[in-house]
Amino acid sequence: MKIGTKIALQFTFTVATILTIFCLVIYYLSENYRQQEFYNSLRDRASTTARLLIKEKEIDKKLLKIIDRNTLDTLYGVQVLVFNDENAVAYSNYTADTIYYSPELLNRVRKEQYLETAYKDKQVVGSIYDGENGSAYVVLAQANDKYGKEKLDNIKDTLIIGLFSTIIITIVFGFLFASHALKPIATMNSDISKITAYNLKTKLFTGNNRDELARLAINFNQMLARLENSFELQKSFVSNASHELRTPLAAIKSEIQITLEKERTVGEYQATLGSLLHDTQHIIKLINGLLQLAKSEKSDSEVLMTPLRVDAVLFEAQDEVMHLFPNYDVHIDFEDIPDDDRWITILGNSALLKTVFTNLMENACKYSENHRADVRISFNRRNCLIAFQDEGIGIERTEINKIFEPFYRTQTAKKYRGHGIGLSICKRIVQIHGGRITVKSEVGKGSIFHVILPHV
């Protein structure tokens, strides 16, 4: 079912429900008013008859019946009975010789003093009227509210016709309203269907920029911008990865071709194999970096986190770096000795954090003439802070915001071996851990990378 049809039907159902309740309330109130008004008329008629019969001595029963017959009254076919203390009929405006009544009804009237009830299709009012010598008369008045019921039937017919007419009108206007209200969505849907991977720059019309549809269009445009940026990064990644892999592979191919052109000595073959091994190791390192970059793009929920001490991971990274590069010198120290181990304990993944610390230590040593990296551990109430400082080549201020992009290398760093993917891996891993990484640098004096991670 289309949303427009669903909205129209829901709107019609809501209006129909409200109108139905309204009509039922009107009918109920009208019926209560009719009954109460008719009871009041019966009570007044009974009171008038009793007063004329009991209080007015000059009016006898025959004259009272004549008065009853000639009195204009809204009560159709009203019947009035007056009973004395012995429950004998003292007066009746019936023309019939035999009068039927209920002794139980008379007893109820005498007990309750006043009674309103219904019998068959008639409404009955019973009341006590005090006579002379302490006698108590029971006066009953009953009649069928013929005219009141006819009026109530007219009200019911009017409400039913009005209800169904209004529902039909509501259906028509409901569909028109839904169609008009959803027209911007239909337009938006049409525009979205035309967007492909080749025209992500296309933007949706945002209207007044204030209502919900405008916000939806704005959010969709922002999503398109993010997709476009992701596609550009992907294209750049593929292009750069292809270039980085093609260079050493081309070198390997050339060395093999040159070596196969003629017979070589054992020493020459060994030199060639050594060069091929070096280039192969270069390719393996690049591929490992690409794999780490791909792993770092996993969803945060896929990474297993456990409580671990930052200093322990740092010492593991220090051992690995100094084992791979014996000429590198990494020093780790605390700015303050923690009173509580929790201040240097974080919820993290040891392997990923070790990758971050290893990359930052290698970079600090690689870009420094003394191949030294100073690592300092500090903390505050919320975070654990690790600073990686070197006295290396430094970074231009205009390039600091770009160094965390995949495959980006500064102008001063291009003379050093590398691929430009280490810092992008570090940034993503730190983000997975709910932290951030910043850098301060001055060309020719060195850099300080700060890794800020929330502790437990």
Which helices and strands occur, and which strands form pairs?
Layout: H1 3-55, H2 61-70, E1 79-83, E2 89-92, H3 103-112, E3 114-119, E4 122-130, E5 136-143, H4 146-181, H5 183-193, H6 212-260, H7 266-296, E6 306-309, H8 310-324, E7 329-334, E8 345-348, H9 350-366, E9 372-379, E10 383-389, H10 422-432, E11 436-442, E12 446-454
Parallel strand pairs: 7-9
Antiparallel strand pairs: 1-2, 1-5, 3-4, 4-5, 6-8, 9-10, 10-12, 11-12
Summarize the structure.
With 456 residues, this protein is of the alpha+beta class. The protein is built from ten helices and twelve strands. Strands 2-1-5-4-3 form a five-stranded antiparallel sheet, with helices on both faces. Strands 7-9-10-12-11 form a five-stranded mixed sheet.
Structural features:
five-stranded antiparallel β-sheet; single chain; 17% strand; alpha+beta; 53% helix; five-stranded mixed β-sheet
Helix coverage percent: 40-55%
The N- and C-terminal alpha carbons lie at a distance of 51 Å
Low-confidence stretches: none
Shape annotation: elongated
Order of helices and strands: HHEEHEEEHHHHEHEEHEEHEE
Radius of gyration: 50 Å
What is the number of strand segments?
12
SS strand fraction: 15-25%
Helix run count: 10
Structural class per helix/strand content? alpha+beta
Mean pLDDT: 83
The biggest beta sheet reads: 5 strands, antiparallel
How would you write the strand order of the largest sheet? 2-1-5-4-3
